[in-house]
């Protein structure tokens, strides 16, 4: 009975002495297996069950949103140049939600999910960052250019150039994705690892630090670009307004009516609020100097990353809802997709229409134009469509309402 009462030497298990003389490689393998087992439980909860409602709802809403915007563009209800950039953001969110659903399926089907595959699939979450950067920065630049160079706007900013910007941005995103997959392959595939000599704490850590730096730069650059645009647009409008005091529907007002600054501020605000958690997580990793910190605390770090992913999915879910609520034309197109004939209150873009009409009437009355004389009223509304109404006493008596002719000259915008 003495051997049961004896205390084991420090650093040895009191249960067995079979693993006292194991090699360092065997000990490292046992530790990795233990961490992998703990990480599997984290994957199934934070990358599986909790993600399902967020990803499914966000995917459905973003698909409906893209269909509604495409329908509005086809019917010339909204500006193509502005809303194609909003579609670009929604496409990035769709890619991210599809990647989340693939990850959910994988971690729930596999008994022991491969941590490397989970991290590779997580790379597609960069799509939401990248598409938001391109969309919001480009929209900010368009609004700034429309005020600074109003008469060159239509000639310089074309639909073709906006599409080129979107395509080039996704080509660059593909390059970042290939870089991530390439470094992962050099580290994880035995033959390539023997050739490259890459390890988790060297090549792979450097790759993730580069990616985190890139994401942090995207976040702050987008916000700074928007703030700078608000500042310069405010100054430019003060200067330009002095030349258009007599014309309330002047050209510099076009883009403001098509995609108001408050809508862009709402979108950038959701981006700034819900993506800040990922930026904090990335900055925290960048400040850690211990090469093995992430590997030693892998389950806890992946748990934190799982919570961060939920915040990103919340933003992807919230953005289309806000657009349906605040954007009259998109809400109208969305209802028409489901053949719903409901009365939509035009509390955003139609207000610009009503204000412009009242301003025109007041200017006509001030100039002393007779009420019964033939006159042409030109009003620029949010869709970029110019409506000319000719008030004729004879035509009004015949039809009961003034004839309306639609000029499609602005539809290319």
From TrEMBL:
Residues passing through the membrane, by range: 46-70, 82-109, 124-142, 163-186, 214-233, 264-284
Q: Which CDD domains match?
A: 7tm_classA_rhodopsin-like
Q: Which keywords accompany this UniProt record? A: Cell membrane, G-protein coupled receptor, Glycoprotein, Membrane, Receptor, Transducer, Transmembrane, Transmembrane helix
What SUPFAM superfamilies would the database entry show?
Family A G protein-coupled receptor-like
In which domain of life is the source organism classified?
Eukaryota
Alphabetical list of PROSITE patterns matching this protein:
G_PROTEIN_RECEP_F1_2
Which Gene Ontology molecular-function terms are recorded?
A: G protein-coupled receptor activity
Q: What is the protein's name according to its record? A: G_PROTEIN_RECEP_F1_2 domain-containing protein
One GO CC term on file: plasma membrane
User: Where is composition skewed (Polar residues) in this entry?
Assistant: 354-368
- Write out the ranges of the annotated region (Disordered): 354-413
Q: Which residues form the G-protein coupled receptors family 1 profile domain?
A: 61-323
Q: How does it sit in the bilayer?
A: Multi-pass membrane protein
Major localization class: membrane
Write out the annotated subcellular location: Cell membrane
């Amino acid at each position: 009975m003495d051997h049961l009462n004896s205390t084991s030497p420090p650093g040895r298990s009191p249960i067995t002495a079979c693993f006292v003389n194991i090699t360092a490689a065997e000990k490292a393998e046992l530790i990795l297996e233990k961490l992998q087992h703990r990480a599997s439980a984290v994957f199934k909860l934070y990358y599986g069950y909790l993600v399902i409602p967020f990803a499914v709802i966000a995917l459905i809403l973003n698909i409906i949103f893209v269909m509604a915007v495409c329908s509005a563009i086809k019917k010339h209800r909204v500006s193509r140049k502005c809303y194609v950039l909003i579609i670009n953001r929604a496409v990035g969110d769709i890619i991210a939600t599809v990647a989340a659903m693939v990850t959910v399926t994988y971690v729930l089907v596999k008994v022991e999910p491969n941590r490397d595959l989970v991290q590779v699939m997580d790379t597609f979450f960069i799509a939401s960052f990248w598409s938001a950067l391109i969309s919001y920065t480009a929209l900010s630049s368009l609004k700034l250019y429309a005020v600074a160079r109003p008469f060159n706007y239509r000639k310089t900013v074309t639909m073709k150039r906006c599409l080129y910007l979107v395509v080039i941005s996704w080509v660059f995103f593909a390059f970042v994705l290939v870089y991530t997959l390439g470094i992962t392959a050099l580290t994880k595939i035995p033959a390539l690892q023997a050739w490259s000599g890459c390890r988790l704490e060297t090549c792979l850590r450097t790759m993730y630090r580069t990616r985190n730096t890139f994401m942090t730069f995207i976040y702050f650059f987008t916000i700074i670009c928007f703030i700078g645009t608000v500042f310069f647009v405010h100054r430019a409008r003060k200067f330009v307004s002095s030349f258009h005091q007599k014309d309330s529907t002047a050209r510099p007002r076009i883009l403001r009516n098509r995609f108001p600054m408050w809508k862009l501020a709402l979108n950038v605000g959701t981006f700034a609020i819900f993506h800040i958690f990922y930026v904090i997580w990335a900055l925290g990793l960048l400040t850690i100097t211990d090469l093995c910190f992430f590997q030693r605390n892998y389950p806890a770090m992946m748990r934190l990353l799982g919570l961060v992913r939920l915040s990103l999915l919340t933003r992807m879910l919230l953005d289309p809802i806000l657009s349906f609520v605040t954007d009259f034309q998109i809400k109208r197109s969305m209802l028409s997709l489901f053949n719903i004939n409901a009365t939509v209150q035009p509390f955003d873009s139609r207000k610009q229409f009503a204000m412009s009409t009242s301003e025109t009437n007041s200017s006509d009355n001030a100039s002393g134009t007779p009420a019964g004389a033939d006159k042409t009223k030109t009003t620029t509304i949010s869709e970029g469509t110019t409506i000319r109404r000719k008030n004729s006493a004879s035509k009004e008596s015949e039809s009961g309402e003034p004839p309306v002719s639609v000029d499609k000259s602005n539809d290319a915008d």
